[in-house]
Amino acid sequence: MKPKTAKPKKKLAARESRERLLAEQRNKLAGAPDPFSRQNVRKVALRVGIPLAVVWVVTLAIPGWIARAAAGVVTLALVAIVVWVYRLTRKSRKVADIVRSADSAEARQEAIGKLDSEYKRGDTAATFAKAQLQMQSDPRAALATLESIDVKKVMAPVADEARTQRAMIHLLLGETDEARALGDAVDLSRHKEPKARAMMAAVIGEAWARTGQASKAASLLETFDANDEIYADLRPQLLRSLCFAYAWSSRTKQMKQALRRLAQIDVQYLAGFVTRKKLPTGVAPRGVHPLLEKEALSMVLRSGAAQRKVQFKRG
Which of 94, 134, 155, 303 is most buried, by CB atoms within 10 Å? Predict the structure, then answer.
């Protein structure tokens, strides 16, 4: 007679593997630094105040009203920009506070309801936050939420973020072609913030690796040092993408090294490379190299974190 605990353990292991990757997206928003901290306010004041002071010093040295009128226009424009940024940042912080409080299924539902009621339809900050909350339990719903953002009407960086988030969900659902199409439309050159750029590169790199462009993916991913502390919370995603890229470009040694580094963070991450008859999403992962699956399964079994017949049944 089979033990009654076998099926729940299998489901638990699969769910934990997926939720670790999905939860990281919510944690990034929830753990964002306070934009109104003394340090950040001081930086903004210096960046705006010093150039403005220089403009007025030069202006006052020039006789006539034209120079002063021009300086006044520049000052008003800068003030308007600062006010706009302040309002945008304040709203972003409020959204982050809502997400931060969503630490359970019930809290997530409550947070989603709050986002729907307190923000207008089409508000991109609220839309991203809602999708990140939905990803915890219903990736399809999160995908539909992100698809409500019209990438042709929002600013290019926002459109790239929407494409990247959608591509990541498609990858987790095994829909590699859809992820590849979205990744190809992202322009990394317009993203200068290191962590945002690395997150996008991890998603794009995995999409490329799993759809026939592994060497191109490896070249992109190797421009980011996963050991750099600035990428600490992105390390699992970068290493996961490298595993795919190295496997499909026949760089077995590097693939095994990346797998070991990923296992050192949490061996359950390796479960994402192992095919099952039925994942929590209802599909099997596509684009997983047989050798990558074999090595990942072997490492998990050697770690003692899983039993072959309970958690990893080959499909």
Answer: 134
154 belongs to a structural domain:
no
**Over the stretch 294-315, which tens digit does the pLDDT of each residue have?**
999 899 888 866 554 434 433 3
159 occurs within a structural domain: no
171, 181, 178: which is closest to 203 by C-alpha? 171
pTM: 0.70
17 with 87, same domain? no
Q: Are residues 278 and 226 in the same domain?
A: yes
Residue that the structure tokens 């990281």 belong to: 24
Q: State the Cα torsion 166-173-4-267 to the nearest 10°.
A: -80
Q: Identify the CA nearest to 96 among candidates 130, 143, 135.
A: 130
CB contact at 8 A, 195 and 29: no
Q: How far apart are CA 76 and CA 81, in angstroms?
A: 9
| Ramachandran assignment for 255, one of left (phi > 0), alpha (psi -120 to 50 degrees), beta (any other) | alpha
Q: What angle do CA 154, 208, 29 make, to 5 degrees?
A: 45
pLDDT digits (tens, 9 = 90+) for 232-271: 989 999 999 999 999 999 999 999 999 999 999 998 899 8
CA pair distance 313, 274, nearest whole angstrom: 9
Q: Report residue 20's pLDDT band, with 50, 70 and 90 as the boundaries.
A: low
CB atoms within 10 A of CB 258: 24
- 197-219 burial code (b ≥16 CB/10 A, e <16): bbbbbbbbbbbbbbbebbeebbe
Is residue 2 domain-resident? yes
Residues 186 and 312 in one domain: yes
Q: What does DSSP assign to residue 264?
A: H
Tell me the DSSP string of 129-171: HHHHHHTTT-HHHHHHHHHTS-TTTS-HHHHHHHHHHHHHHHH
Whether the pLDDT of residue 165 is over 70: the answer is: yes
How far apart CA 88 and CA 84 sit, in angstroms, is 6
